[in-house]
Amino acid sequence: MTLTNYLLHTFDSTKSRITHFIELQTLITAYLLVPSLLILISFLITYFWRYIRLQCSKSVEGRLVLITGGSSGIGKALACKYAELGANVIIVARTESKLQNALDEIEQAAKDSNKQTFAYLKCDVTNNQNVEEVMSELIDLHGCPDTIINCHGAAYPGYFMQQEHSIFEVGFICVH
Question: 118-166: per-residue pLDDT in tens?
């Protein structure tokens, strides 16, 4: 074997060993490092999500929250949750008897009913003038709300193409 052949053989052998070493490193990275990083990332996401939720639950304490449609359904459930977190809750709906029953439930869910304020205002949110009057009364009595949540609902059954144009105007006014 000549010196040139020996060096070429050794070089190929070394090159082969380096290639195998790099492939081994790639496998180690793929099978050990990547799952470890995924676990770490999921831990960090979970940690920050819990931290944000905790901060949000603290941030509503003492705040004034106005919830339309608060006498039943999702609106009432949200009102109870905000009361549980320490917020001052005002609910708005059309039916006074439902409002009073809902207010009793909200007061029971309160974090500290001695420090919190709960009230209801009767209002038909589809009537623009009524909304302006109630909002003026709200601001006079309790100040400007920190949060407004719209949970009121109305149903107009029928086919879309057969609906009266006025129904869409009322829905548009309610949202804005």
Answer: 999 999 887 888 889 999 999 999 999 998 998 887 667 778 778 777 7
61-153+162-175 folds as Rossmann fold (3.40.50)
- With CA atoms as reference, report the closest residue to 152 among 84, 82, 79: 79
Contacts of 67 (CB under 8 A, 6+ apart): 75, 78, 79, 82, 89, 90, 91, 92, 148, 149, 151
Backbone angles phi, psi at 55, to 5 degrees: -65, -40
Handedness of CA 136, 152, 112, 54 (dihedral sign): negative
Whose tokens are 């209801």? That residue is 120
Is residue 157 packed enough to be buried (19+ CB in 10 Å), middle (13-18) or exposed (0-12)?
Answer: exposed
Note the pTM of the prediction, 2 decimals: 0.60
Residue ranges covered by each domain of the chain? 1-59, 61-153+162-175
CA dihedral of residues 78, 84, 86, 89 (deg, nearest 10): 40
